[in-house]
Automatic annotation (TrEMBL), chains A, B:
Stretches assigned to the Phosphoribosyltransferase domain: 110-253
Protein name as annotated: Pur operon repressor
Keyword Endoplasmic reticulum attached: no
Domain Bacterial purine repressor N-terminal: 4-72
Subunit structure, as described in the record: Homodimer.
Length: 273, 273
C-alpha cells in the first residue's frame, strides 16, 4: 500500500515527536510507506521547517549510510518567556502559603500540561549536551524528572531517603542538608545506574543545595558524571549555596508570611542560553 | 501569513497530540493559519484517517457552534498485544530476582518509552469514561500515574505514607496491608483533590490490593468516586484479594526463587475491552 504525502506527514510527525533524540534512518520511513527516499527527504524538509517555525523543535539530518533524521526538542525563547512569566504569577499566588512559610506546589507538580512545558524547557537547555540519564530524589522531583526524560528520551533514576527491599542492594551516602544542617541519608539502587553515565540532576526546589550536593556525591560513588543540574524553583536568599552551576526556571525572592506576599522572579534560565 | 496544507498538517498533528481530550474549536485552527474552516475540516479528515489507520488514536468531531475536534488516545489491539507480550518477557528475566523473591522493576519504571506505552494503554482503557484525576501512592506508582495522566490530560494526585510540611493539612486513614496484615497509614493533602472528582487509581504492583483498597477508602473521605483501577503488574496468587474490578497489564503467576524462574502472563487488559 502506498501512502500519500499528507498521510506520511501526519504519521512521520507523530513518530518523530514520539522518539526524540533518536536517529531514524530514512530507509525506515521509506519502507514504512513504500515511498522513495527522495519523497521522504522532501517530507522531512516540510516537517523541519514547520517544527522550526512553530517552535516545536529541530530536525537534524545526518548524511551517509549510517545517517538519518533526529528530532531534538528546542523550545522557542518566546515560549520559554511566556511560560516562565506565567509560572512566576502562579507561584506568587498568596493562597499557596502554608504554615512556616512553605509553599503548596502539588497542584503545579500534578498538572501534566505544566510539566510538559517544564520538561520541554529543561530538555531544551541540555539538548546540545549528551545526557544518558536523568536523576532526581523522591518524591517531588519525580514528575519533573520524567517530564525532562521523556523529551530527552533517556531513563530516570530515583534516589531515595529510605531504602526498599524491592530495589536490591543500594549505595548510600550521608549528606548535610544545607538549610537545616541535619545529617541525612540518601541511597540509590546499585543496578540503577551504569558506571560512566552522564547524568542530568533535576529537582523541584533548591534552597542551599544540600540535597543536590548529596546527589553529586552519590554520583561519584557510581563513577558517573554530572552533565547538568536544573531546578524548577530556586530560593534566592539561600545562605552558603553549595551548588553553583545550575539552571533554574523560577527564583523565589521573598516570602512574607505576615503580609502574605510571595515575590517571585524568573530564574537564570535565559542567562544560560 | 498563509500556510500550506502540508505545514498545517504537521502543526495540527503536534497540537492535537499535545492536547489530548481537549475540545479544540475549528476557529482556533482557522485563525492560527488564516485558513477557511472548510480547509481545516479537510485537514482534520486526513489526520483522523491517519490516526486511525496507524493506531495513534481517534479524532472526535463535535458539531455546532460550541463544537470542535478532540484527540482521544486509543491504542490499536495489535500494539497492545505486542507490548504486553514484550513486557511479559522482560519481567520474566531471572536477573530481576531479588532476595525474598522480590523483582527489580526500576529499570522498567525508569524507561520513558515503556512508560509512554503503559500510559497509552491505561488511558485507552479508560478513554470512554470521564476521568478527572489520576491517583497513586508514592513512590513507584508515580511514573505510571504521570504517564496515564499525560494521555488523559488530567492532573495527578499523590498519596503518601509520610506527611510533609510542604503539603499543608492532610486527610489520613489507616489501612490494613493485604499481604503483611500490618496496619499502615496513608494521607492526601486536603487541597489536592476536589469533592466529587472521578478518580482513576493506578499503581505499579498489586498483590492482595490492600494499598489500593486504602486509596479507595481515602477517596470516600474526599467524597470522590473511583472511576477505575489499573495496575501494571498483578500477582496471581494473592489470597483474599480486596479489589475485584481492575485492569492489569501483566500477571505474575509464579516466582520460583530456588529454580530462578519467574512465570508471567498477560493480565486481564483484553478481557475488559
Amino acid at each position: 500500500m502506498k501512502f500519500r504525502r499528507s498521510e506520511r506527514l501526519v504519521d512521520m510527525t507523530h513518530y518523530l515527536l514520539d522518539h526524540p533524540f533518536q536517529l531514524v534512518p530514512l530507509t525506515f520511513f521509506a519502507d514504512r510507506y513504500g515511498s522513495a527516499k527522495s519523497s521522504i527527504s522532501e517530507d522531512l524538509t516540510i516537517i523541519k521547517e514547520t517544527f522550526e517555525h512553530r517552535g516545536i523543535g529541530r530536525l537534524i539530518t545526518v548524511p551517509g549510510a549510517a545517517g538519518g533524521v533526529k528530532y531534538i526538542v528546542k523550545s522557542h525563547p518566546d515560549e520559554a518567556h511566556a511560560f516562565i512569566n506565567e509560572m512566576c504569577e502562579t507561584i506568587a499566588n498568596p493562597d499557596r502559603l502554608l504554615p512556616g512559610g512553605y509553599l503548596f506546589m502539588m497542584d503545579i507538580l500534578g498538572d501534566p500540561q505544566v510539566l510538559k512545558k517544564v520538561g520541554r524547557l529543561i530538555a531544551s537547555a541540555y539538548s546540545e549536551k549528551s545526557i544518558d540519564v536523568v536523576m532526581t530524589v523522591a518524591t517531588k522531583g519525580i514528575p519533573i524528572a520524567y517530564a525532562a526524560a521523556s523529551f530527552l528520551n533517556v531513563p530516570v533514576v530515583i534516589v531515595r531517603s529510605d531504602s526498599k527491599v524491592t530495589e536490591g542492594s543500594t549505595v548510600s551516602i550521608n549528606y548535610v542538608s544545607g538549610s537545616s544542617k541535619r545529617i541525612q541519608t540518601m541511597g540509590l539502587s546499585k543496578r540503577s545506574l551504569a558506571q560512566g553515565s552522564r547524568v542530568l540532576i533535576v529537582d523541584d526546589f533548591m534552597k542551599a543545595g544540600g540535597t543536590i550536593n548529596g546527589m553529586v556525591s552519590l554520583l561519584e560513588e557510581f563513577n558517573a558524571a554530572v552533565a547538568g543540574i536544573s531546578v524548577l524553583v530556586e530560593s534566592e536568599n539561600a545562605e552558603g549555596r553549595l551548588v553553583n552551576d545550575y539552571v533554574s526556571l523560577v527564583r523565589l525572592s521573598d516570602v512574607d508570611v505576615k503580609e502574605k506576599k510571595i515575590t517571585v522572579k524568573p530564574g537564570n534560565y535565559f542567562d544560560r542560553l
